Amino acid sequence: MTRFDAATEETRRGLFADAIRAHEERRSPFLTIEAAVPNEDQQPWVQFADGLVNLDCTDAELGRVKTLLDDYPEFRIDDLERPEDAEGTNVRIAARADPERVAGFLDRIFAEVYEHPADYRAWVAAV
């Protein structure tokens, strides 16, 4: 990979698909994508490994995840974990699809689940 961040829908999705392919080629333990929005305290992240998308979310965000999954019938929630000492839920989603389809889903997580603006910047933090 030669680039590690992007700030438009088209370039983010291309970046995410390239990162997924690099992760698979390298057989790395996981891929981490972080997103930042100016003036926001919490910067969300999403991980991908072995066909699973992993993210943390609030109850409201979890509702938006479930709504988003309506557009991805081939994806499904694999596990929900609500640790007693944490606020929110860790969600693991089985996402068995080509890198472009997964990349679109990841971009929509940041845009629709975390409600980031259209020009949010995302970084591939680990491949």
User: How many β-strands, per DSSP?
Assistant: 7
Low-confidence stretches: none
Instruction: Profile the largest sheet.
Output: 7 strands, antiparallel
Average pLDDT figure: 93
Order of the strands making up the biggest sheet: 1-7-2-3-4-6-5
Number of structurally distinct domains: 1
> What structural category do the secondary elements indicate?
alpha+beta
Shape: globular
Oligomer: single chain
Write down the secondary-structure element order: EHEEEHEEHE
**Distance between the amino and carboxyl termini:** 9 Å
Total number of helical segments? Answer: 3
Proportion of beta-strand residues: 25-35%
The share of residues in helices is 25-40%
Structure commentary:
The chain has 127 residues and is an alpha+beta fold. It has one domain (5-126). It is 35% helix and 31% strand. It has 3 helices and 7 strands. Strands 1-7-2-3-4-6-5 form a 7-stranded antiparallel sheet, covered by helices on one side. α1 crosses α3 and α2 (59-69) packs antiparallel against α3. The longest helix is centred in the N-terminal third of the chain and has 18 residues, at 9-26. It starts with a strand and ends with a strand.
